[in-house]
Amino acid sequence: MLVRSGIAVVALGFLLRFNPLLVVAAAALVTGLAAGLEPVAVLAAFGRAFNDTRYVTIIYIVLPVVGLLERQGLQARARGLVAGMRGATVGRLLLGYMLFRQVTAALGLTSIAGHPQTVRPLVAPMAVAAAERQGFDPPACERVKAMAAGTDNIGLFFGEDIFIAIGSILLIKGTMAQYGYDITPIHLSLWAIPTAVAALLVHGARLLWLDRRA
Amino acid sequence: MIGLDFVYAVAGATFAAFAWLSLTDRSNPRRFGTGAFYGLIAVSFFAGDRLGDVGNGVLVLALVALGGTGAVGRGAAVSSDGAGAEWYGNRLFLPALIVPVVALAGTLLKPDWIDPKQVTLVSLTIGVLVALAVCYVWFRPTVRAPFDAGRGLMDGVGWAAVLPQMLAALGAVFALAGVGDVVGGLAARAIPDGNLFVAVLVYGLGMAGFTIVMGNAFAAFPVMTAGVGVPVLVRGMGGDPALIAAVGMLAGFCGTLLTPMAANFNLVPAVLLDLDRSAVIRAQAPTAVVLLVVNILLIYFLGFRT
């Protein structure tokens, strides 16, 4: 039972807003010691697992390409594309963004959008403008802003796993390999599709419902 | 045959470039700490297999010391005037599409000069190199320009870049210490003998619940897989390992939508949009709960067909 103290360290550490890297390192140490391991053994186990999971971090090799394309105006172009969907209601606007986010994430283009890049400068202002035109009161407009951020997360989470080289798919592959199950990433990607469709239906219905409240 | 060594060499070179550009980046108030942080990641990619387990552990401690104490800073982002947007039009999306298209093509075609076990990662890496080559030919930037722009984006991620790897390693320590056995034992005791529906329910709720505690499905996944997924659902009840693992991870994602510990998804946007700190979680909650139910039902109805 003592080994669960590591979970308590994580919960407490995040609750008290310590840096997550420090919290994770402390949790690993506490868990290892509680299980009766030597500190050096914990260090070695942590180092080995860190080294074995380096593939999770390789996705950043795409940043020079993305960065250069953004410098050439990729974001402006993407904004132009989204701005082309004018005359839309808040529900249809956010539904369109969700589709865009899901489809591009499924192609592995997870970093072409996000909260700093697209939601704050683009999606939230457009959604609020549409909401005001539809007669939403100020508290409702605040909820529309929160919905814009949530739509980005939901579109991303339930789109990215369709891409075969995303971190979570690679983590699943590595974990299952430890138990002797050699699973090809494309097989995992296919099983992400039913939930992706369900996310579009459920969240899409909630977005369109926003229009009926006006 | 091209394998993981090639992938890690490219990743090491990329982080070495980020490290060098950060060290010389006068717009970054913490340029030495930032450069050292990226440099250590480059060392991990280049030489991780030769450092030994304790050596890698020391490397992680150094990363934590830098990333956990605010020594990793942020340089100026390379701004876009967007002037190219008019000039290049929608063709600008083409180089961005090279990466996923090459990754997908390589994975489906499986050429025999690629290590079949690493075909996705190798194809992705080749896709990045092809896209980079196309960008050099098409836009004629200076040699360092893509890496300057990439460094700007990398600084936005900062110390969080190694958090997923840290959480995966924590999962391994949890496994070594038997936390999965304890959680799995608790879960297994909650499962009446041979009751498939309750077993699936415990797996799905456990995945989401543990993600809420840990803030990341990456940390919950190895624990719930060790505790319930593999021993109970796959080995005990003959479930499909690919479906149970893939949908189980998505059940974890439902938990990510509900927890303040997933700070970059739930708290940062609330700050960016001047909202109450729990506003984004409240907006996401109904969708997350319904999708959790959907995922549990998917595993129950599709995971045990044979």
Oligomeric state of this protein = heterodimer
Distance between the termini of chain B: 37 Å
Structural class of chain A: mainly alpha
Number of strands of chain A: 0
Helix proportion of chain A: over 70%
Tell me the Rg of chain A in angstroms.
Answer: 21 Å
How many structurally independent domains of chain A? 2
Number of domains of chain B: 2
The helicity of chain B comes to over 70%
Sheet of most strands of chain B: none
Percentage of residues in DSSP E strands of chain A: under 5%
Structure description:
The complex is a heterodimer of chains A (214) and B (306). With 214 residues, chain A is an all-alpha fold. Chain A folds into two domains: 2-52, no CATH class; 62-213, no CATH class. Chain A has eleven helices and no strands. By secondary structure, chain B is an all-alpha fold. Chain B has two domains: 4-156, no CATH class; 178-302. Chain B has helices spanning 4-23, 31-47, 52-68, 83-88, 93-109, 119-139, 145-157, 163-177, 179-190, 196-214, 217-236, 241-256, 263-266, 268-272, 279-302. The longest helix of chain B is centred in the last third of the chain and has 24 residues, at 279-302. The chains are: A mainly alpha (214), B mainly alpha (306). The interface between A and B is large, with 113 and 145 residues.
Q: Main attributes?
A:
A: 214 residues, mainly alpha, globular, B: 306 residues, DUF979 (chain B), Putative membrane protein (chain B), transmembrane (chain B), transmembrane helix (chain B)
How are the SSEs ordered, and which strands pair?
The complex is a heterodimer of chains A (214) and B (306).
Chain A: H1 5-15, H2 20-34, H3 39-52, H4 63-71, H5 74-83, H6 90-106, H7 115-133, H8 138-160, H9 167-178, H10 185-190, H11 193-213
Helix pairs in contact in A: 1-2, 2-3, 6-7, 6-8, 6-11, 7-8, 8-11
Chain B: H1 4-23, H2 31-47, H3 52-68, H4 83-88, H5 93-109, H6 119-139, H7 145-157, H8 163-177, H9 179-190, H10 196-214, H11 217-236, H12 241-256, H13 263-266, H14 268-272, H15 279-302
